[in-house]
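Troubleshooting log. The previous structure file for this entry was overwritten by mistake, so regenerating from the original sequence record. Sequence copied from the archived sheet and checked twice against the printout by T.R.
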Amino acid sequence: MREKPKQQMRIWAMWCHLSALLAWIVLFFLVFLGVPLYLPLNLLAPLLIWRFKKARYPWIDFQGKESLNFQISLTFYTLIVIIISLIVILTSFSVALTTNGAVNQINITLDGLVITFLSLILLILLLQSYLVTFAAIKAFRGQHYRYPLTIRILR
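Regenerated output below.
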């Protein structure tokens, strides 16, 4: 049977997960304020925690890799949704312009597309907040947890 990690290790492992969630909140707050920014801030804090604590604590090494892999995957998925949404919006806008569509029809099309892709981003954020919170609780309890749909870059 595996030995349960010490409390200090478990707290740092929990912060590996929660710091990424806090970084997403900061990032979206900045975007909400009008700062056009897409930096993977969600990678910075878990990377720093993992980098400085992994040599002393093997539990943080495992949890840090898992958190970073999930955040890299999530950043990649979000970037894909943003790129696809921009392509679809620009394509539909150009089709509407070339077919001499009415201004009202163009507005309805663009509004529908924007709502659809914002809904996808919101779904990704809700899923991420649930999974990160769940992983942080598991890490604090000293239990192993693997994120679903994660590209395992760090092994």
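The radius of gyration is 20 Å. Archived copy saved in two places this time.
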